[in-house]
Amino acid sequence: MTGHTIFITGGTGYVGSHLIPRLLERGHKVRALVRDGSEKKLPSGCTLIRGEAIIKASFSDQIRPADTFVQLVGVPHPKPSKAREFRIIDLASVRASVSAAVETGIQHFVYVSVAHPAPVMKAYVDVRSEGESLIRSSGLNATILRPWYVTGPGRWWPSLLLPAYWLFERLPSTRASARRLGLVTIDQMVAALVRAVENPAAGIRIVEVPQIRAKQGDCN
Protein backbone atom coordinates (compact mmCIF):
# COMPACT_ATOMS: atom_id res chain seq x y z
CA MET A 1 0.00 0.00 0.00
CA THR A 2 1.28 3.43 -0.95
CA GLY A 3 0.76 6.04 1.74
CA HIS A 4 -1.26 9.16 0.99
CA THR A 5 -0.99 12.66 2.36
CA ILE A 6 -4.47 13.70 3.39
CA PHE A 7 -5.89 17.14 4.15
CA ILE A 8 -8.88 16.87 6.48
CA THR A 9 -11.48 19.44 7.48
CA GLY A 10 -13.68 18.60 10.45
CA GLY A 11 -11.01 16.44 12.04
CA THR A 12 -12.05 17.33 15.60
CA GLY A 13 -15.59 16.06 15.07
CA TYR A 14 -17.05 12.68 15.89
CA VAL A 15 -16.01 10.89 12.70
CA GLY A 16 -12.75 12.78 12.27
CA SER A 17 -11.50 12.02 15.77
CA HIS A 18 -11.87 8.31 15.01
CA LEU A 19 -10.62 8.49 11.42
CA ILE A 20 -7.33 10.36 11.90
CA PRO A 21 -5.74 7.79 14.26
CA ARG A 22 -6.69 4.98 11.87
CA LEU A 23 -5.11 6.76 8.91
CA LEU A 24 -1.94 7.42 10.88
CA GLU A 25 -1.78 3.77 11.99
CA ARG A 26 -1.90 2.73 8.35
CA GLY A 27 1.05 4.89 7.40
CA HIS A 28 -0.69 7.90 5.89
CA LYS A 29 0.25 11.50 6.62
CA VAL A 30 -2.53 13.76 7.84
CA ARG A 31 -2.79 17.55 7.65
CA ALA A 32 -5.77 18.60 9.77
CA LEU A 33 -7.47 21.98 9.62
CA VAL A 34 -8.29 23.30 13.09
CA ARG A 35 -9.64 26.53 14.53
CA ASP A 36 -7.59 28.44 17.08
CA GLY A 37 -8.31 27.03 20.52
CA SER A 38 -9.30 23.56 19.30
CA GLU A 39 -5.80 22.21 18.71
CA LYS A 40 -5.94 19.85 21.70
CA LYS A 41 -8.99 18.11 20.23
CA LEU A 42 -6.90 16.66 17.41
CA PRO A 43 -5.20 13.28 17.83
CA SER A 44 -1.42 13.44 18.10
CA GLY A 45 0.69 12.61 15.07
CA CYS A 46 -0.97 14.84 12.50
CA THR A 47 0.14 18.21 11.17
CA LEU A 48 -2.03 21.03 12.50
CA ILE A 49 -3.18 23.65 10.02
CA ARG A 50 -4.87 26.64 11.65
CA GLY A 51 -7.69 28.20 9.71
CA GLU A 52 -11.44 28.52 9.20
CA ALA A 53 -13.17 25.87 7.09
CA ILE A 54 -15.61 28.38 5.60
CA ILE A 55 -12.82 30.77 4.53
CA LYS A 56 -10.81 29.33 1.66
CA ALA A 57 -8.00 31.88 1.93
CA SER A 58 -7.29 30.78 5.49
CA PHE A 59 -6.17 27.28 4.47
CA SER A 60 -5.82 26.85 0.71
CA ASP A 61 -2.08 27.56 0.66
CA GLN A 62 -1.55 24.88 3.35
CA ILE A 63 -3.22 21.97 1.55
CA ARG A 64 -0.12 20.83 -0.32
CA PRO A 65 1.58 18.38 -0.35
CA ALA A 66 -1.71 16.53 0.18
CA ASP A 67 -3.03 14.45 -2.71
CA THR A 68 -6.34 13.59 -0.99
CA PHE A 69 -8.91 15.91 0.59
CA VAL A 70 -11.41 14.59 3.16
CA GLN A 71 -14.35 16.92 3.89
CA LEU A 72 -15.98 16.19 7.26
CA VAL A 73 -17.19 19.62 8.38
CA GLY A 74 -20.76 19.65 9.62
CA VAL A 75 -23.01 21.14 12.26
CA PRO A 76 -22.97 18.76 15.25
CA HIS A 77 -26.17 16.90 16.12
CA PRO A 78 -28.11 18.03 13.03
CA LYS A 79 -31.84 18.59 13.43
CA PRO A 80 -34.51 20.54 11.51
CA SER A 81 -34.14 23.66 13.67
CA LYS A 82 -30.54 24.06 12.46
CA ALA A 83 -31.45 24.69 8.82
CA ARG A 84 -29.74 28.09 8.76
CA GLU A 85 -26.55 26.65 10.28
CA PHE A 86 -26.44 23.95 7.60
CA ARG A 87 -26.16 26.64 4.95
CA ILE A 88 -23.69 28.96 6.68
CA ILE A 89 -21.41 26.15 7.89
CA ASP A 90 -21.91 22.88 6.02
CA LEU A 91 -22.55 24.37 2.59
CA ALA A 92 -20.10 27.27 2.93
CA SER A 93 -17.33 24.90 4.00
CA VAL A 94 -17.81 22.42 1.18
CA ARG A 95 -17.92 25.31 -1.30
CA ALA A 96 -14.59 26.62 0.06
CA SER A 97 -13.07 23.15 0.16
CA VAL A 98 -14.04 22.18 -3.38
CA SER A 99 -12.72 25.45 -4.78
CA ALA A 100 -9.45 25.07 -2.87
CA ALA A 101 -9.09 21.43 -3.91
CA VAL A 102 -9.48 22.34 -7.58
CA GLU A 103 -6.99 25.19 -7.36
CA THR A 104 -4.35 23.04 -5.64
CA GLY A 105 -4.72 20.04 -7.93
CA ILE A 106 -6.10 17.55 -5.40
CA GLN A 107 -6.26 14.09 -6.97
CA HIS A 108 -9.14 12.69 -4.92
CA PHE A 109 -11.87 14.40 -2.90
CA VAL A 110 -13.78 12.46 -0.23
CA TYR A 111 -17.10 13.87 0.98
CA VAL A 112 -19.44 12.63 3.70
CA SER A 113 -22.92 13.45 2.45
CA VAL A 114 -26.16 11.88 3.68
CA ALA A 115 -28.52 9.16 2.48
CA HIS A 116 -31.32 10.45 0.29
CA PRO A 117 -34.09 10.77 -0.60
CA ALA A 118 -35.42 10.78 2.94
CA PRO A 119 -38.78 11.66 4.51
CA VAL A 120 -37.23 13.89 7.21
CA MET A 121 -34.37 16.39 7.63
CA LYS A 122 -35.14 18.08 4.32
CA ALA A 123 -32.91 21.13 4.92
CA TYR A 124 -29.96 18.92 5.84
CA VAL A 125 -30.47 16.62 2.85
CA ASP A 126 -30.82 19.63 0.53
CA VAL A 127 -27.53 21.14 1.70
CA ARG A 128 -25.63 17.88 1.39
CA SER A 129 -27.11 17.35 -2.07
CA GLU A 130 -25.94 20.82 -3.06
CA GLY A 131 -22.49 19.82 -1.82
CA GLU A 132 -22.59 16.79 -4.08
CA SER A 133 -23.58 18.99 -7.02
CA LEU A 134 -20.62 21.30 -6.37
CA ILE A 135 -18.28 18.32 -6.44
CA ARG A 136 -19.79 16.91 -9.63
CA SER A 137 -19.48 20.22 -11.45
CA SER A 138 -15.89 20.77 -10.26
CA GLY A 139 -14.37 17.99 -12.33
CA LEU A 140 -12.69 16.45 -9.27
CA ASN A 141 -12.31 12.71 -8.86
CA ALA A 142 -14.42 12.08 -5.78
CA THR A 143 -15.89 9.51 -3.45
CA ILE A 144 -19.20 10.54 -1.89
CA LEU A 145 -20.35 8.53 1.11
CA ARG A 146 -24.02 8.62 2.11
CA PRO A 147 -24.59 7.42 5.67
CA TRP A 148 -27.86 8.18 7.44
CA TYR A 149 -26.88 7.99 11.12
CA VAL A 150 -23.54 6.92 12.59
CA THR A 151 -23.83 5.11 15.91
CA GLY A 152 -21.10 4.66 18.50
CA PRO A 153 -20.06 5.77 21.99
CA GLY A 154 -22.47 8.49 23.06
CA ARG A 155 -24.67 7.79 20.05
CA TRP A 156 -26.30 4.45 20.76
CA TRP A 157 -29.92 5.59 21.15
CA PRO A 158 -30.89 4.81 17.50
CA SER A 159 -30.11 1.15 18.24
CA LEU A 160 -33.57 1.08 19.84
CA LEU A 161 -34.90 1.28 16.27
CA LEU A 162 -33.16 -1.91 15.13
CA PRO A 163 -36.25 -4.14 15.54
CA ALA A 164 -38.19 -1.77 13.27
CA TYR A 165 -35.35 -1.78 10.72
CA TRP A 166 -35.31 -5.59 10.83
CA LEU A 167 -39.02 -5.65 9.97
CA PHE A 168 -38.90 -2.96 7.28
CA GLU A 169 -35.97 -4.64 5.51
CA ARG A 170 -38.10 -7.77 5.13
CA LEU A 171 -41.16 -6.07 3.68
CA PRO A 172 -40.92 -5.59 -0.10
CA SER A 173 -42.61 -2.19 0.05
CA THR A 174 -40.09 -0.73 2.55
CA ARG A 175 -36.97 -2.83 1.94
CA ALA A 176 -35.11 -0.38 -0.33
CA SER A 177 -35.66 2.69 1.85
CA ALA A 178 -34.85 0.79 5.07
CA ARG A 179 -31.53 -0.30 3.60
CA ARG A 180 -30.73 3.14 2.18
CA LEU A 181 -31.54 4.84 5.49
CA GLY A 182 -30.00 2.17 7.70
CA LEU A 183 -27.70 2.76 10.65
CA VAL A 184 -23.93 2.37 10.40
CA THR A 185 -21.46 2.10 13.26
CA ILE A 186 -18.51 4.42 13.70
CA ASP A 187 -16.18 1.49 12.97
CA GLN A 188 -18.00 0.81 9.70
CA MET A 189 -17.89 4.49 8.76
CA VAL A 190 -14.18 4.81 9.47
CA ALA A 191 -13.43 1.60 7.56
CA ALA A 192 -15.38 2.90 4.56
CA LEU A 193 -13.49 6.19 4.64
CA VAL A 194 -10.16 4.39 4.83
CA ARG A 195 -11.15 2.25 1.84
CA ALA A 196 -12.08 5.42 -0.05
CA VAL A 197 -8.74 7.06 0.71
CA GLU A 198 -6.71 4.00 -0.20
CA ASN A 199 -8.68 3.28 -3.38
CA PRO A 200 -9.11 6.65 -5.11
CA ALA A 201 -12.05 7.04 -7.46
CA ALA A 202 -11.75 7.81 -11.15
CA GLY A 203 -14.68 10.14 -11.71
CA ILE A 204 -17.49 10.11 -9.14
CA ARG A 205 -18.06 7.10 -6.87
CA ILE A 206 -21.14 6.90 -4.61
CA VAL A 207 -21.02 4.74 -1.49
CA GLU A 208 -24.42 4.02 0.03
CA VAL A 209 -25.25 2.50 3.44
CA PRO A 210 -25.03 -1.17 2.32
CA GLN A 211 -21.52 -0.54 0.95
CA ILE A 212 -20.48 1.37 4.09
CA ARG A 213 -21.56 -1.64 6.15
CA ALA A 214 -19.65 -4.10 3.97
CA LYS A 215 -16.49 -5.68 5.40
CA GLN A 216 -13.76 -5.49 2.79
CA GLY A 217 -9.99 -5.67 3.02
CA ASP A 218 -8.03 -5.36 6.26
CA CYS A 219 -9.06 -1.88 7.37
CA ASN A 220 -12.09 -3.06 9.36
What does this structure look like?
The chain is an alpha/beta fold and 220 residues long. It has one domain: 3-Layer(aba) Sandwich (Rossmann fold). The protein is built from 7 helices and 9 strands. The strands form 2 sheets. It has a 7-stranded parallel β-sheet, sandwiched between helices. A two-stranded parallel ribbon has the order 7-8. Strand 4 (68-71), helix 2 and strand 5 form a beta-alpha-beta unit. The longest helix is centred in the middle third of the chain and has 21 residues, at 83-103. The radius of gyration is 17 Å and the shape is globular. The protein starts with a strand and ends in a 7-residue tail after the last helix.
